[in-house]
Amino acid sequence: MLEIRDLSVAYGKHQALEGATLRVNPGEIVVILGANGAGKSTLLKAVSGICEGKVRGSVTLDGHQLDSLPADRIVEEGIALVPEGRGIFGDLTVEENLKLGAYPERAKGDEQANLDRVFALFPKLIERRRQVARTMSGGEQQMVAIGRAMMSSPQILTLDEPSLGLSPLLCKELFQNLKQVRALGIGILMVEQNAKQSLAIADRGYLLENTRIVHEGEAKALMTDPAVQAAYLGGGGAAAPATHSPPPSSEKETLTKVTVRPPSRRRQSADVLVGMDLSDLVAKAGETAKSAPKVKAAPMAAAEARQDDIKAMLKEFEIAAARAGQSRPLPDYTPVARSASPAAPAASASTGSSDDAPVTIEVYRAPRVEVYRRRTNGDFERD
Ligand code: ATP
User: Fold this and answer.
1) Of 8, 134, 281, 364, which sits with the fewest C-beta atoms within 10 Å of its C-beta?
2) β-pairing, 14-24 with 2-11?
3) Tell me: the pLDDT tens digits for 190-202?
4) CA 9 to ligand 1 centroid distance, Å
5) What are the pLDDT digits (tens) for 283-315?
6) What number does the ligand 1 atom closest to the CA of 9 have?
7) How many other C-beta atoms lie within 10 A of the C-beta of residue 93?
8) What percent of the chain has pLDDT over 70?
């Protein structure tokens, strides 16, 4: 089990994380939700030993102290980070990227088995194994990044906003993949902006607000919690800050009431702005279209009839103009049937009495200037 106790980070005088305490069990997905700048990435970096700030507190994995170890030793202990932005090597192939993940001693003997495991998880990567990583789509690159972390035989996988920049469909696929990773017994600690989808697959979650963990709970309970809904799930109360009692654990007893503010507008997810999950929105639009009345409204039918009549008249103008010119062979002409719509424009130029009769239009022929060239022998040749 990964245990983080009283973890604090300061960048110079700026306190970015204060007294964070959380745990991740094997085969469990834990999500950290929080506004921009709350300290989420800082927490993951501190756990992985790559934080530039001053770190205090304790991080243990199965009782082994990690907080004073360098980053490569932490990977050896079994924690792999998929950083925000993926951090893959764009100029290397998929397979080269994956194999680089197998550098820790703990994973060396299992390279082939781990590669098979990654390919089983992401079959798409098999056919793309020779493709240069930067030419792949965002979703595929995310698979490579997760696959590379999996190559180090981790006990705990930490992911910083894995769904960032992915379409709703790819997000869904990604979260399904993470469930498969969990099924392998790997614990997952993930920072996410996509609260709805991440909570849907998570076992537990923590809310990080203004450098502090202000709430924790089962993912299902968090999803239905009004304060969480208002702040992270577009529950309609986003404009009004919601309050939450801190967790009842002894470490949190010094906290009383803490405000959970909605994620800042600086980089708010589209889901939150729209007020519902985008995939739900698309589905709803589809349903609305399906349930729309199939019959054409009468004014629409009349407008379409007028359009047809105008098209027919234009065709007739064209034919009449061509007849008048007589300079080119005439195309076959079949009069276009007119609608009997009273709203159709009157055929003012028509001399026919029936609606089906072709329209005759008087066209005055412009005087034509013909140019001749005189040959050297004195003959004239038409230009
Ligand atoms: P986001 O969702 O926007 O990524 P976050 O919750 O992950 O936000 P962090 O990246 O952990 O937030 O940053 C927490 C605070 O620490 C922010 O105020 C940020 O400006 C600051 N910070 C982060 N990294 C550094 C750094 N290397 N030097 C100085 N300040 C930093």
Assistant:
1) 364
2) antiparallel
3) 999 889 999 999 9
4) 10
5) 666 665 555 555 444 556 677 777 777 777 777
6) 16
7) 17
8) 69
Mean pLDDT to the nearest integer, 151-171: 91
DSSP-derived 3-state class of residue 272: helix
Nearest CA to ligand 1 atom 30: 11
Nearest to 321 by CA among 349, 348, 344: 349
Please list every protein residue whose CB sits less than 6 Å from any atom of ligand 1: 11, 14, 16, 34, 36-42, 52
Cα torsion 177, 76, 102, 108: sign = negative
Cα 193 to Cα 162: distance, rounded to the nearest angstrom:
9
For ligand 1, atom 2, the nearest C-alpha belongs to 36
Q: Tell me the CA–centroid distance for residue 36 and ligand 1, in Å.
A: 8
Ramachandran bin of 338, using left for φ above 0, alpha for ψ from -120 to 50, beta for the remaining angles: beta
Q: List the domains of the chain with CATH numbers.
A: 2-238 (3.40.50.300), 270-382 (no CATH)
Q: How is residue 35 annotated by DSSP? A: -
CB half-sphere exposure, 379, CA atoms < 13 A: 4
What does the chain come to in residues?
383
Q: Kindly report the average pLDDT of the chain as a whole number.
A: 79
**CA-wise closest residue to 141 among 83, 222, 62:** 83
Lowest mean pLDDT: which of 81-85, 254-258, 328-332? 254-258
Atom of ligand 1 at shortest distance to CA of 42? 11
CA–centroid distance, 25 to ligand 1, in Å, is 26
d(CA 196, CA 234): 9
State residue 49's pLDDT score.
95
